[in-house]
Structure formats: C-alpha cells, structure tokens
Design brief:
Length: 172
C-alpha cells in the first residue's frame, strides 16, 4: 500500500506575509553629496553652489531622488536644502536618505495602510528571508505593532521553521 503524502503546512491555516513583496518595483535615483566635496571631506559653499547650478538635473525628471552623503563628512543642513531647491521642480519626490532607507519607508507606509481585517484571529507568519530586498527591524516592528492586537498568534520565519513571537492567551 502506498501512503498519501499530506502537506501539513498547506492545511495548517497559517497565513504567510512576505514584506519584500511590498517593496517598490522601481528604485530611486541617488544624489550623493560626497561627489561634491573638496578632497572628499569638505563642503566649500561657493564651489558647491556653482556645481549645483551647472549640474544636469534633468536626468532625474519625474523620478524619486534620494539625497544623502556617503562620506564621513560634516554636511551643514542648508546644503541638503539647497539640493532640494534645484531638484524639486524636476523630480517626482525628494527623500533624505539612501535607497535602502527609502525602500524601508515605502514598505512601512504600505504596512500602515494595510487592511489587516483578514488577519483577525488568524495564525500569521511573517517571512524571515527575502529575495533581494533587505528587510530590517523597522519593517518587522511595524508589522508586529499592527498585527499583535488582532491576531491569534504571530510567528517569524518560514512555515517549516518558525519562531513564536506572540500568542493570545485565551480568556476564560
């Protein structure tokens, strides 16, 4: 006699959420102030202003632009503001931070707007590994904050190997 294989995970009623699926499909452009620093360390105001005036801002037309400085340099706040004055008439969106920061922000915004009613009283797993998208603690924290008040249980990982995070205690 042959035994029928049963997929216990598929029949378990677990709901798996994959935060990487909420990452934007198109990555933003970057404007790294380090490229405008004297010897990679110092921002000289007049040189910086002159470079911004002659910079080709049209390359960012209609796109999202992440503004940051990847060098270990002290950048005055007005420098970021000055970049925005040139970029904002051209771009769709200006964001302070690197592309990973922007992606995290977009996923967290999605979580805040997520219809969580389908997860009420359910057993939910938040997938722990992602393909190509870095999912950091801010995303997991936001998801847990939204889901803990409504789910029966919350787990982290993969359906075959989960870490229990929360389980509602039955009230009597």
């Amino acid at each position: 006699m042959s035994e029928t294989l049963v997929n216990k995970i598929a029949n378990s009623g677990l709901i798996t959420l994959k935060p990487e699926e909420w990452a934007p499909a198109i990555m933003p452009e970057v404007f790294d102030i380090k490229d405008f620093l004297f010897k990679g360390l110092i921002l000289k105001e007049q040189e910086f202003r002159d470079q911004l005036k002659t910079y080709d801002w049209n390359q960012y037309s209609g796109k999202t632009l992440c503004i940051f400085c990847s060098a270990d340099a002290i950048i005055p706040n007005w420098a970021y503001m000055l970049v925005v004055t040139y970029a904002s008439p051209i771009v769709k969106e200006v964001f302070f931070g690197n592309p990973q920061d922007w992606t995290t922000r977009k996923i967290v915004e999605h979580i805040h707007n997520l219809d969580i009613t389908p997860y009420t009283d359910q057993r939910v797993i938040i997938k722990g590994c992602s393909d190509g998208v870095e999912i950091g603690p801010e995303i997991y924290t936001s998801l847990a904050a939204r889901l803990v008040p409504i789910v029966r249980s919350l787990m982290f990982g993969e359906p075959c190997s989960t870490v229990p995070v929360y389980k509602r205690i039955k009230s009597t």
